[in-house]
Structures are given as structure tokens and as C-alpha cells.
Amino acid sequence: MELKNNTILITGATSGIGLEMAKQLMNLDNTVIVTGRNKEKMESVKKMYPSLNVYPLDVTDVTSIHSLYDRLIKDFPKLNILINNAGLMKSIQFTSAKMEILTDEITTNLAGPILMTQTFLPHILRQKNSAILNVTSGIAYFPFDKAPLYSASKLGLHSYTQSLRKQLKKTNVKIFELAPPRTDKPMFSGSEEDNAQVDRIPQMPIEKVVQTMITGLKRDKLLILPGMSKLLRIIGKIQL
Ligand SMILES: NC(=O)c1ccc[n+]([C@@H]2O[C@H](COP(=O)([O-])OP(=O)(O)OC[C@H]3O[C@@H](n4cnc5c(N)ncnc54)[C@H](OP(=O)(O)O)[C@@H]3O)[C@@H](O)[C@H]2O)c1
């Protein structure tokens, strides 16, 4: 797809991979809208990158999604690309985990992108060169037992992305998936022992993850698997 002169919305992009996507996509002459929840982080991003458009959004809250939609279709009627990037990861031990936190990752990482897609799809369907990209993870293909619900949420998002692609086959919207490997800004934080084990896994710089995403989008590669994620997908197919 053409990666110039688009209007791109990236959720959860006041830090990490989302912010790096925003910077690289802005450098390619796109209008970029980023969202966040934390006011201080949003203000500091706006200060550092005045050309970025920063809006509040909580993807677990339907009212917040609808109010963002109402504002964006007025402010950016040409919005043609949605990147569902917002996500969180928790270290969960089934023997001790509290019931209240068990659905957090499913709500943010899986229900969030589904609600965002359902809200923005009618608008995106009317645009040219349009696309939705869902950020899953290498862990979608090879579950990480220390973060079991994160793994489940990302596999769910992978499956949802495949169905969405099939249902929209006859439209002009392209449905992409980016499955990053562990990056140099890792999300996992668990016990000392778990952290030591995870620290042995190689890390890919987020700049490289995003460069791979951009090359993949330009080549219409619908499943983008940077670095280790390719291998995780192969191993995942043969595990019990
Ligand atoms: N880092 C890795 O190694 C890695 C590897 C594979 C996949 N990924 C995926 O890449 C994506 C970006 O992660 P990251 O590493 O860049 O992490 P990050 O820096 O922690 O960014 C996550 C973003 O998601 C936002 N977010 C969390 N809950 C939200 C909610 N309910 N509503 C709206 N926004 C919410 C956060 O916003 P606030 O700052 O406002 O909380 C933050 O901006 C995630 O989907 C993650 O699963 C990351």
C-alpha cells in the first residue's frame, strides 16, 4: 500500500512501539493521530513532537471510543488507517491471582481492538488506500506461561484479524497483523526468577520492529513477523 499522505490513528502511542510508529510514519509525510490515557505522557509527547495530534482514549470504555470517533471524523475526515496498538501484559500465577485482574488483558488487548474496529470501520470503508493493522505478538503463536492471559488475548486477536480479513475480502480495506518479538522495551515484569529467565530471550530494537512493519505495509504483506516471531510461529505449530 501507499505509505504517504495518509491519515493514521494509532492507539496507545504515547510511548514504546506506538510512539516509534508515529515518528516513522510522520517522517513519511503522513498525518498521524496518537492516543493515550495518561495526561502527563500526552502533554510531553505533544511538546516533543508538535506535529503529532494527541487525543485521549481508553479502549476499554465504549463512551471514550465514541467520543474520540465523533471528534476525529470532524477534525480528520480523511482518516484512512487504524492501528490497534494499545495493550498491556501482566504476570499471572493461577494459584494466587485475584479474580478481578483475570480479564484485564482480554478487555484491553482483544475487546479494545474489536470495539475500535467496529466503531471506525464504516468510516474507513469509505476511504481510499485504507487499512487496519492489529498489533499482536510473537507470543500469540507460542504461549508464554508467565503471562498466560496476555498470550490468550494476542492469539484471540490473531484469530479475529484473520476473520476480519476474510469478511472484508471484497472491500478495499486491507487487514494487516504485526506480531512483534520481545523488544528492547519489554513489557514483562514478574518475579526476580521469572525476569532472569526472560532476560535470556533476545530483544529487537523497536526502531527495527517499526522499520520491518513499514516495509511489510509497503509490500502488502498481511502478516508481518519481525525477528524471532517467525521462529516462534514455526515452533508453535509443532508444540503439544
Ligand atoms: N514491548 C514488547 O516487547 C512487545 C512485544 C510484542 C508485542 N507488543 C505489543 O505492542 C503494543 C505496544 O506495546 P509497547 O511495548 O509499546 O508498550 P507500552 O509502551 O506500555 O505501550 C502500551 C500503550 O498502550 C496503552 N494502553 C494500555 N491500556 C490502555 C487502554 N485501556 N486504553 C488505551 N490505551 C491503553 C498505554 O497507554 P498509557 O500510557 O496511557 O497507559 C500505552 O501507551 C502492545 O499491543 C503490546 O502487546 C509489545
UniProtKB/TrEMBL annotation:
Name of a matching Pfam family: adh_short
GO cellular component: membrane
Molecular function, one GO term: oxidoreductase activity
Keyword set includes Nucleotidyltransferase: no
Keyword Oxidoreductase part of the UniProt annotation: yes
Transmembrane parts of this sequence: none
The name this protein goes by in its record: SDR family NAD(P)-dependent oxidoreductase
Organism expressing this protein natively: Lactococcus taiwanensis
UniProt family annotation: Belongs to the short-chain dehydrogenases/reductases (SDR) family.
Protein keywords: Oxidoreductase
Annotated PROSITE patterns: ADH_SHORT (PS00061)
